Structures are given as structure tokens and as C-alpha cells.
Amino acid sequence: MTNPQLLEQFYRSAPLYRELFDKQLEFALSPSRFIAAVCSRRAGKTTVCAVKAMQELLNVPGSIGLYLALTDRSVEDIFMPTIMPLVTRYKIKCKVNRDEIIFDNGSKLLVCGANHIHKIETFRGIKLLFCIIDEAASFSEKILHYLVDEIVGPALSDHQGQLMLIGTPAAHCMGMFYEVTQGTEPIWIVKRWTAFDNPYMKDNFRKDAELFCLRKQCDKNHPKFRREYLGEWCADDESLMIRSFHTEFPLSHYSNDNWRSVIGIDFGFNDETAFSVIAWAKNNPKTYVLECFGITKSSVSQIAQQLQRLKQKYKPVAFVGDPAGASKIMMLEFKEKYGIFMDSAQKTNKAHYIEILNDALLNKVLVLHPETTLELQKEMRTVVWNEERTREQEGMKCDQLDATLYAYREALGYTEKILLKVQKTEEDIERELLNSIILKDMEEKHSRNGDSFYSDLNQYMGQ
């Protein structure tokens, strides 16, 4: 829409769109039912989401739109502060609540953090005019697929509404948002822009881009620069929480005579409760993640059934559970009702113990069973650090990784320090033989003459 007269006429019927620059407007006015935008940081993603949502609901009385961010905190700290100035500037008649905006024309914008499956279940049965999923690259893949395929997709059917995915590329180059923006699903229209296209940000953003390269002593090909400043997908092992891991079948089957184990549990009554079995065998320097799995929407009795099964199968030296996910009362119930004593997992210094875990994985001291840890392997390939590198990025699924970390931290106190037998070279064997001959001669000399064997030995060692 390049004709100024037509554009001005359009703005009279949709005034909020004045807030958008050309590439934002192109995204907002796309007629496609499935549209995605991959952008740099500070490109104005939240602004286009807020403008699009409010203007569409004002244009269609009695309709419902849905805006989903990664967490409720994201909605509160990022989206709502963008909404409020628009309400004031354009004198929009509405009532703003924590989780919804109700307009005087009967339309409603629902806003929510979608980091738990039970929260998105509440959107079943709603007839949606549109759904906007912000920061789509950071969503749990399980939640994103479930949301799109089973919740939002059917809810958009009545109005033939739009589904919009928008976000900045992540360090892991995989998942729905990656595939959509790479063109693997042809029904999607993909738009791209950066903060260099944003007239309100481009000068400051250019300065910060130059400072980034100076600080990192890098050029524009640095993975983080390409993602954060250019909005390009680029894998970055530095941002991944788990750097490397190895899969390997155990040398022998688990038995209570030769093996020991620790079982870690990450409780999640609204999402996934994860179980991880760390085990080691006598005379084997390696520790194995023998089994790792999760169950969703689990009750206390369902969790107890899994714990009893694992107790019977592995007879572990310890169970260790996340005390934040399970109260002391619940852990007491596991003990008294089901005969399962559970220690509280150590959750402090997570970054420190992740590095210990990384070291064990890198050196193949800890290895994963190739067939019974598939979901854990997926998490290890995708979980990235937060900005402070203290824990995972908010909203990322790492239940099975956490359960494994709890178990491994506990297992460090039990596992045997087994020395590997070093293969001797011919030179080593010759040196040992020569030393034995020399020492034998010393002993015979000492026996004949009564000289000090130890003085001779010290002289020899000094030589």
C-alpha cells in the first residue's frame, strides 16, 4: 500500500496501524491464515502484536483474540506496557485486566503465558478471530505442537482466523518455528525484518551492533550477532546448556548384585513429572543414564506407581526428588504410604553442577542409553542458557534434564573411583625388568657385605 492517499484513507478506518513502519504493516496486513515473522531483537515485535490484536478486535465487534507469550511474567513486563500507551493515545474504550482486555464493542483479547499445558487447555471451545504466539522459538516443542494442532487450530476454524508465530531465532536450529520460517511447510507466509528497519531504533541498534563486535572481537558472522542483530538462524554451541553427550549400551545387564543406582525425580503436576535412573556397575568406570521418561498430568498415586515399579526393578541406593515440586507432606506420604524414602534434591549452584555434568558427558564418564533416553537426548540438544547463564532460558522444557542432574549430583557420592588399567608398552616392560634386576643385585650385595641396602637404593633413585 504505497499510495499516500489510499494509505491515509486506510488509517482513518484503522488508526492504530499508524504506529507501524512498512515491514511491520506488511506483516499485520497479510491475508494469509498462517503467517510467521522472524526478526532481530528490538525489531518491534511486541508493538506489531499489540497493534494487530487491538485493531482487529475493534474492527470486528463481539470477537475474541488470543495473545500468548512465553510466561505470565512476559505478558506483565513486556506486552501490557506496550498496550497501555496505545489505549491512552487512541482513547480506546476498554477495561484492562491482568489476563484480558474487554472492549466496549463486546470484543475481548485474552492474554496468557503458555508455559503449562493445563493453562492452554482453558482455550478449548473458544471461537477465535486470531491467535498470536510471541517468542515462538523459545516455546517447549511439546507445548507448541499441542497448542497449534489441538487447541488453537480448531478454535480458529469458525472465523477462518489467523495464526501468527513471531520471534527471534534461537541457538538450537530445530523445532516448529525453525521449520516454518525455513520454508518446510508451504502453507505459511514468512516475513523478516530487523531493528535496522525500525526507524525508532536503527541508529542506537547500529551503535550497539558495533559495540558487540568490539567487545567480542568478532565480525558479523558471529552466531550471536547473526541471531540477535540480523535475525538469522545460526547454531551456537556456546549458548547450549549441554555441549556434548555420548550414547552407549551397557556392557552387561542390570543386576542387583553387580549394579547400583540412584533415581532422580522432577515433579510437575501441571506439566511433566520426569524420572531418571543413573546406574553404575562394579569394575566399570562409566556411569549410565539407563532410563529416563516423563508422565504428564500425574496424580500422587500415579507417581507412586512409577516409583514402586522403579524401586522393584533397580533397588536404588537413593531416591532424590525436587522439593519445590513436591512438598514435604507429599514426600512424607511417599514414605509412610508407599514405603519410598526420598531425599530432597540439591538445587543450588545449578550452573556449577551443569558444568560438572558436561565434563562427565564430554569425557564419556557419563553416557546415555541410546534407546531408553530419547526424550532426554532431545532436551540436551535444545536447552539453552538464560542471559545470566545461571539456569535454562525461561519457558524451555528441561524436566528430564533436571531429573538427571538431581540423580547425578546424588550419585557422585556413591560411585566408585575405578582406575583404568593402562596398556603397557614394550619399553615399559623392559624398564620394569631392568629395575627388578638392579634391585635384586643390590639385595645380594647387601646380604654379602652387610652394606646399607637403602643407601644404595636412595643413590640409585637419585641417579
Write the layout of secondary structure elements.
Blueprint: H1 4-13, H2 22-28, E1 34-39, H3 45-59, E2 64-69, H4 72-89, E3 94-96, E4 100-103, E5 108-113, H5 117-120, E6 130-134, H6 141-155, E7 162-167, H7 176-181, E8 189-193, H8 202-216, H9 223-228, E9 259-266, E10 272-281, E11 287-296, H10 300-314, E12 318-321, H11 328-338, E13 342-344, H12 350-362, E14 366-368, H13 374-382, H14 399-411, H15 426-449, H16 453-462
Parallel strand pairs: 1-7, 1-8, 2-5, 2-6, 6-7, 9-12, 11-14, 12-13
Antiparallel strand pairs: 3-4, 4-5, 9-10, 10-11
Helix pairs in contact: 2-3, 3-4
Provide structural commentary:
- This protein folds into three domains: 4-193, Rossmann fold; 259-411, 2-Layer Sandwich (Nucleotidyltransferase, domain 5); 426-462, no CATH class.
- Strand 10 (272-281) and strand 11 form a beta hairpin.
- The protein is built from 16 helices and 14 strands.
- Helix content is 41%, strand content 17%.
- The strands form two sheets. It has an eight-stranded mixed β-sheet with strand order 3-4-5-2-6-7-1-8, sandwiched between helices. A six-stranded mixed β-sheet has the order 13-12-9-10-11-14, with helices on both faces.
- Residues 416-422 have low confidence and may be disordered.
